[in-house]
Fold:
Amino acid sequence: MTALAMLDLVIPDTGPLITLALIDRLDLLDRFQCPILVTDMIHAELTRGPDTAPDKAAFEHWYRARGNRVQTVDTLYGTMWRELPDETRRSIKRQFPNAGEESIREFAGRVAEVLPEDDQILVLFEEEKVKRMSFGRHVHLLHTWAFMVALERMGVIPSADDLHKQVEQRGRTIARDVYERRASAGGGDVQDWTDDYDRPAGI
Structure:
């Protein structure tokens, strides 16, 4: 099997972070032995809500504690968005419902530019549109639910169903989407993102 240089975890939409933050399980991302890349739009959206929002507090604590392991990728869309007042943002979202998709597309393009072409990229997502985007070579796409199922299979968590129920109890609904598109090396060998994930001792 031909090994790729390293794994980079890419999170292009807020979904996975909101889901895990709501149930205080962002620690499941800490087990990745690699950098974590998010777009500046994600950071802006997750830190702009009310201070009482449980996902905001959990995300900010996690983000600060990770230091330079979490890398924010600046985008033109995100830079402009941060300068707009809230009312203007709401108006744009009403008039241009696909505006968020464009920011993710720009982020995908930036990721393809800045990461070494031999790196394996794991894209953790919840937005359906992400399935149709290109993040460069050696890309592995994984929905949040498929991630939970994989963690149960690896022995990291007791039950994916239990996590899903906790998310629902916090008022959030995520699809039980088992979508997983594996990356492959140039020679056709399938790469496994779990090789870069810390499992419990003995597993």
